[in-house]
Amino acid sequence: MAGSGTAHLRDGEQVLRVEDLTVTFPAGRRRTVHAVSGVSFDVARGETLGIVGESGCGKSSAARAIMQLPRPSAGSVRLNGLELTGLRGEALRRTRRRLQMIFQDPISSLNPRRRVRDIVAEGPRVWGTLDGDTARIDELLEAVGLDPATAAGRRPHEFSGGQCQRISIARALALDPEVIICDEPVSALDVSVQAQILNLLEDLKARYGLTLVFIAHDLAVVKNISDRILVMYLGKTCELAPSAALVRSPAHPYTRALLSSVPQAPLRIPEEEEKHMAGEPPSPLAPPTGCRFRTRCPRATALCATEEPRMRPLTPDHYIACHHPHTETPA
Fold first, then answer.
1. According to the model, what pLDDT value does residue 331 have?
2. Could you state, in order of their start, the residue ranges of all structural domains in the chain?
3. What predicted TM-score, i.e. pTM, was given to this entire model?
4. Helix, strand or coil for residue 100?
5. Cys-Cys with 23: which of 35, 70, 213, 301 at CB 3.0–4.6 Å?
6. CA–CA gap between residue 116 and residue 256 (Å, rounded)
7. Neighbour tally for 307: CB within 10 Å
8. Which residues are within 8 A (CB) of 243 and not within 5 positions of it... i.e. 6 or more apart?
9. Distances (CA, A) of 38 to 19, 51, 213
10. CB–CB of 33/89 below 8 Å?
């Protein structure tokens, strides 16, 4: 294992590899926000990797750094073996055609002055791949569940939030990407609409052979769409495992807390354990020494304050960064 502990894939062709990804932002005089600190993971072709954690844990910062928007402060991002962090100008622009993004707020991510057909067609027109043929745009609108005859000529404000997210998905598909990063794409939608969008993403993934990185703060949403789940806390990776294994046997105390908050989850943590985890995470301006979760962890010891836990395997495909993991399986 390299760097801070990449959980390498055993099977499948690797399409995206992120290693020791670090994102920092200046925050006034001599102050720095540590948004992402040494996060590593691989994604296989055709896989959906879920990334979950509380608001402010660095999920969206990591997503944008993968897109080089902005560039990471340190670390490596490889798409099909091609290093993205060193690319500039036209080479980077061409690579971004293969790596698209769907944003959290579907309405504000669309140009309010443009009609739907022009929004979806913008990317192919810029790259000269449309050639005046609008049949491709109609096909994409139909693929995301919109009627081209009634939707193509309207503007975003005439649609609901769920319909706007469908337009955003069609726009992301227009350049035939290999990987789509979904940055909390359902968090602003009603629960019933969330299910529709998740089902749509699953269908499109199979239809177009997509690889997805799906980001959310709700473990209940992530576990239903992901093949594997990466748990983040305060810019660090806590745990990475196949979705079923993570839900069945969460090993990190933070993962246990997230899972216990999911309705009908197979785990309820004791009241004393829950009290330890109450409150807000520390500020990313001054993260705790050692394990960043130790200030809220019921298992924290002196070792946790002085030594940062590194990612290590519990099983061949289940990784954890914790000095005192839970190893029992909940009843």
1. 46
2. 14-98+177-320, 112-176
3. 0.91
4. strand
5. 35
6. 43
7. 12
8. 50, 222, 223, 226, 227, 228, 229
9. 7, 15, 18
10. no
User: Higher pLDDT residue, 110 or 274?
Assistant: 110
Question: What SS3 state is found at 56?
Answer: coil
Buried residues in 87-99 as b, exposed as e (16+ CB within 10 A): beeeeeeebbbeb
Q: Which residue has the tokens 């990471």?
A: 72
Q: Which two tokens stand for residue 278?
A: 């109450």
Domain 14-98+177-320 superfamily per CATH: P-loop containing nucleotide triphosphate hydrolases (3.40.50.300)
Q: What is the mean pLDDT of residues 29-44?
A: 93
Which position has the higher pLDDT, 237 or 328? 237
Length of the chain: 331
| pLDDT score, position 1 | 35
- Return mean pLDDT, the chain: 89
DSSP conformation letters of 289-316: SS-TTGGG-TT--HHHHHSPPPPEEEET
In the chain, the amino acid numbered 179 is: V
